[in-house]
Amino acid sequence: MPDQSTTEVHEPAITSSEEGATRLTRRKLLGTAGATGLVLGAAGATAGYAAAPAQATPLSSIGAGQAPFHVKHQPGITQGLQARGHLVAFDLAAGAGRKEAAALLRRWSETARLLMAGEAAPNDDTDIARDAGPSSLTITFGFGNSFFARTGLEKQRPVALDPLPDFSSDHLDKTRSNGDLWVQIGADDALVAFHALRAIQKDAGSAAKVRWQMNGFNRTPGATAHPMTARNLMGQMDGTRNPKPTESDFDERIFVPAKSTKDPAWMANGSYAVVRRIRMLLDDWEKLSLTAQEQVIGRRKADGAPLTGGGETTAMDLEKTDANGDLVVPLNAHARITRPDQNGGAAMLRRPFSFHDGIDPDGTPDAGLLFVCWQADPLRGFVTVQRKLDRGDALSKYIRHESSGLFAVPGGAAAGGYVGQALLEG
């Protein structure tokens, strides 16, 4: 088991005469950690949910993790789950159009590039994250359906951005759904994540206003003795069958191809994000026995293995029966219904955050899942699976979808460019 003690990073002393002339960047403050050989680098930052590392991430290396900004696919999609996250949607201000949107995406992209490298924000940095490393910070940008009419780009709106259908478990708050622009922020340090959120909000200036904002969390990398699939607030392992970048058809299922026959050219190497705030009715769930909970999910709670036996990654035997002739995995078990081979191969890359927004007056926790999933085609991915769940998922009794959004997330920015440049300047 790796040493999980925290490496202490000391800030070099600065005299009063030097302070005005020399500003230490967050990257410079990481020098001690880098010298000890604990820097994760871009490869380490991808560890976790989508691609588990060979060994546990030492806690002392958390601040040193760094994800690159100028990449083929925007950061924050294939990276592992991050300990802290913020999801925020903006609406363009009255009178703001394509020109203002382009200027905003330029500002946001430059801010993201600097912050993800562990540098200060370019404008009026708050110093909230001054003492920290990049902490695997990722910032991801997307466009909602309404963005295209606001900017006169209706002809460039992808068909895939057509509104999602209604589902029986929907209790949607329209004020916390959709939006012209969407930003996903993730990091393995809460202050680094909040610092990015504050910088993005300030950069919006008079061009856009916050429509809604949500905060989430996951287990911190290195908190377990070895890499594990994350658990949600129901205590269940969540994401066992997540597609992996090592799979031959991963890109085909998750990303828009460079020469797509269905999507506009500006979406090359991009993806579509479905965002849902799913409240978990934890008081009802926790009244169930362990056996009943496992029947609802179709997997053992302790290790995520299917009820038909084996380990977490063992294939589920959908035909196996017990001594009474009953199916071991019930027909309405969540894990059975969501299997890709039960949905025409439909797959999506789940990358959620848990949330807890306090206690209601009646003592009910306002908690659950900030569900974020990625796919090349939301109709074939999320919609296909959710329609199947809508027809008889045992878990639906214990959850409630309270907000929803669908966003087109273009490919990564080229060096010297900004996210969405091909759309806004094409």
Automatic annotation (TrEMBL):
Residues 229-413 form the Dyp-type peroxidase C-terminal domain. It is found in: Cell envelope. GO terms for cellular component: cell envelope; cytosol. PROSITE patterns: DYP_PEROXIDASE, TAT. Pfam families: Dyp_perox_C (PF20628), Dyp_perox_N (PF04261). Binds 1 heme b (iron(II)-protoporphyrin IX) group non-covalently per subunit. The keyword Flavoprotein does not apply. Keywords: Heme, Iron, Lyase, Metal-binding, Oxidoreductase, Peroxidase, Signal. One of its GO terms (molecular function) is metal ion binding. GO terms for biological process: iron import into cell. Its EC number is 1.11.1.-. It comes from the Bacteria. Residues 74-218 form the Dyp-type peroxidase N-terminal domain. It is an enzyme of class 1 (oxidoreductase). It catalyses: heme b + 2 H(+) = protoporphyrin IX + Fe(2+). Its cofactor is heme b. Its main location: other. Involved in the recovery of exogenous heme iron. Extracts iron from heme while preserving the protoporphyrin ring intact. Belongs to the DyP-type peroxidase family. PANTHER family: DEFERROCHELATASE (PTHR30521:SF4), DEFERROCHELATASE/PEROXIDASE (PTHR30521). This is Deferrochelatase. The lineage of its organism: Bacteria, Bacillati, Actinomycetota, Actinomycetes, Kitasatosporales.
